[in-house]
Design brief:
CATH topology: Rossmann fold
Largest sheet: 8 strands, mixed
CATH architecture: 3-Layer(aba) Sandwich
Shape: globular
Number of helices: 7
CATH class: Alpha Beta
Order of helices and strands: EEEHEHEHHHEEEHEHEE
Helix content: 25-40%
Number of domains: 1
CATH superfamily: Vaccinia Virus protein VP39
Length: 223
């Protein structure tokens, strides 16, 4: 499938798939979307210092990198797991401008390291920040009670409806610790219903630039 690097509205880059008319991030602003959906509506909602995160769709590494920058600011302890079925190529990584746009030149080596580290094993790239990249289809996830936070950043349901089903959200529910949070840019009614059916509490929130709403789900299990 053809892939192109494009500039989004906030000046940051993303990968565009012309055949699907789909992007890895919002064309209205890749960095703005990531900060709004996953940091402000996700990471900033947790009170604990030690956080385990599962990202569904590691992709360009943008969400992992902005999480790393938050880790530096807030002195967090992060265990980050990124699942990706089709890893992004090195030439594409080198064409992305996230380090410059985030004014994070001093941390460029860590962005590069996120992409260079070996797959399928936990690697501590900085004290108190470990990352595990897993090349895996989302349907094959079998984690249980491991994550405080899930970044659900799969391609949209228009092109890959099989990633937004009750089956997938049941896997997310099982993977998450009680009290955990899942955030996603999506707001479709069918997605919300699938989340509710498997047991999540779901709320609609204002979306990032170019999108009216997004969803945040919580796992609350009372004995």
């Amino acid at each position: 499938m053809k892939r192109e690097i494009i500039i989004t509205s906030d000046g940051s880059t993303t990968i565009h798939l012309p055949d699907w008319n789909e992007q890895y991030h919002s064309k209205h602003g890749a960095i703005q979307e990531a900060l709004h959906v996953f940091i402000e509506a996700g990471l900033h909602q947790l009170s604990q210092r030690k956080v385990s995160i599962l990202e569904i769709g590691f992709g360009t590494g943008l969400n992992a990198f902005i999480t790393f920058l938050e880790y530096v600011k807030q002195d967090l302890v992060i265990d980050y797991v990124g699942v990706e079925a089709y890893p992004v190529g090195r030439d594409e990584i080198e064409a992305l401008n996230y380090v410059d746009e985030l004014k994070a030149k001093e941390y460029d080596s860590y962005f590069q390291k996120m992409h260079d580290v070996e797959w399928e094993k936990p690697i501590e790239i900085h004290e108190n920040f470990s990352i595990t990249k897993r090349q895996q289809f989302f349907q094959d996830i079998t984690d249980e009670n491991q994550y405080d936070l899930i970044y659900f950043d799969a391609f949209g349901a228009r092109n890959q409806p099989e990633l937004w089903t009750e089956e997938i959200f049941q896997k997310m529910f099982v993977a998450m610790k009680n009290g955990g949070v899942l955030t996603t840019y999506a707001a479709k009614g069918s997605v919300r219903r699938a989340m509710l059916t498997v047991g999540f509490e779901v709320e609609r929130l204002p979306g990032p630039p170019g999108k009216r709403e997004m969803l945040r789900a919580k796992k609350i299990v009372t004995s």
